[in-house]
């Protein structure tokens, strides 16, 4: 799950090159802003300022992806019969969404990311966890059930 999420982040982050809000705020020039779906040329436009390469790695949020990897907890009810009930499933969803949301909010608050960065980061983590859950748990459980019948 974590490997899949980080592979996706690595593939997306460098080529997109979206400039961080705090970097734009630091230099007082917001012309480097680009929407999340546009590949940015800000790194070339601001090359004379010798900004750290980290200033151009806003999209998607790696911290939110890391926090979102807690979505793997959504598989706990599938693994332990004790937690396989509606109340536990809701509790695991609430805990994981709140934690990921708080990390995303904090990343926006410190000027490291925009809302779209953390939204896509959290979504990448969620999708990665659900794919991993399907491959390693759900699919195997269905296979075992069919074999036993």
User: Tell me about the biggest sheet?
Assistant: none
Helix content: 55-70%
| Percent of residues in beta strands | under 5%
Rg from C-alpha positions?
Answer: 19 Å
Q: Give me the number of helical elements.
A: 7
What would you call the structural class?
mainly alpha
SSE string, helices as H and strands as E: HHHHHHH
Return the average pLDDT rounded to an integer.
86
Distance between the termini: 30 Å
Counted beta strands: 0
Uncertain segments are 145-149
What general form does the structure show? elongated
Written account of the structure:
With 149 residues, this protein is an all-alpha fold. It is built from 7 helices and no strands. It has helices at 2-16, 21-27, 42-45, 62-68, 76-79, 86-109, 115-148. Helix 1 packs antiparallel against helix 7, helix 4 (62-68) packs antiparallel against helix 6 (86-109) and helix 4 packs parallel to helix 7 (115-148). The two termini are 30 Å apart. Mean pLDDT is 86; it is low at 145-149.
Give the SSE map.
Elements: H1 2-16, H2 21-27, H3 42-45, H4 62-68, H5 76-79, H6 86-109, H7 115-148
Helix pairs in contact: 1-7, 4-6, 4-7, 6-7
What is this entry, summarized?
The chain is an all-alpha fold.
What keywords describe this structure?
single chain; mainly alpha; 7 helices; elongated
């Amino acid at each position: 799950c974590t490997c899949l999420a980080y592979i996706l982040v690595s593939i997306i982050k460098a080529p997109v090159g979206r400039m961080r809000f705090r970097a734009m705020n630091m230099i007082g020039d917001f012309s480097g802003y680009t929407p999340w779906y546009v590949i940015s040329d800000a790194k070339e436009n601001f090359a004379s300022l010798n900004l750290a390469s980290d200033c151009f790695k806003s999209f998607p949020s790696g911290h939110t992806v890391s926090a979102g990897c807690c979505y793997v907890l959504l598989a706990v009810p599938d693994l332990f019969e004790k937690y396989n009930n509606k109340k536990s499933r809701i509790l695991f969803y609430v805990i994981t969404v709140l934690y990921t949301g708080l990390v995303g909010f904090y990343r926006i608050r410190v000027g490291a990311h925009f809302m779209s960065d953390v939204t896509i980061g959290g979504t990448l983590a969620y999708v990665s966890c659900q794919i991993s859950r399907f491959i390693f748990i759900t699919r195997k459980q269905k296979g075992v059930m069919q074999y036993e019948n």
